[in-house]
Design goal:
This protein is mainly α and 167 residues long. α1 packs across α6. The longest helix is centred in the middle third of the chain and has 14 residues. It is globular, with a radius of gyration of 15 Å. The two termini are 28 Å apart. The relative contact order is 0.18.
Length: 167
């Protein structure tokens, strides 16, 4: 059903999901810094579950839906990376890629699509990936040594222009 839904979204939006404003008519200040993008592409985000997911995707051309959601949420809502760059990255690796589902789902995560609620996945609480991280990174899972939640607040204010409030 989700694939059908996103195909309809793509059709009725006249491909707006490929644009920076996507389905919302707002200006966003997404980050496109080369070093930031290189860190994510090279699985150097300092969040083990994200880095392991990127390694799995690049190694196998597949990633579970849950991990796709975690990666998209973190890259966009914590790091502030332009959702179109994240979507293009997934497009370049996923074996089951299709434009409507990929861009629709990532736009949804980026709060520029159909979602009316600003949601952020807590990458530590969402997934206990000890075995997964050991498999893909060949190391023990470690808590990040920085405040990744504070990053979310900064992105919320500087990319989306949402003050810390109920949303």
């Amino acid at each position: 059903m989700w694939r059908d839904f996103f195909h309809l979204v793509m059709y009725y939006s006249k491909n707006a999901l490929f644009l920076k404003k996507a389905l919302q008519d707002k200006d966003y200040n997404f980050k496109t810094t080369k070093s930031l993008i290189n860190n994510f592409i090279n699985a150097n985000t300092c969040i083990d579950i994200i880095d392991a997911s990127i390694v799995e995707l690049k190694s196998t051309a597949w990633l579970s839906n849950r991990n796709r959601q975690l990666v998209a949420s973190y890259l966009i809502k914590n790091m502030g990376i332009d959702f179109r760059i994240v979507a293009a990255f997934f497009e370049s690796y996923l074996i089951d890629y299709n434009p409507a589902s990929n861009y629709g789902n990532i736009a949804y995560q980026a709060f520029v699509g159909n979602d009316k609620t600003y949601r952020v996945f807590d990458v530590i609480k969402q997934y206990n990936g000890r075995v997964y991280i050991n498999k893909w990174l060949n190391k023990e899972e470690q808590e990040p040594n920085f405040d990744y939640k504070k990053m979310t607040d900064e992105v919320k204010q500087t990319v989306y222009y949402i003050e810390n409030s109920s949303q």
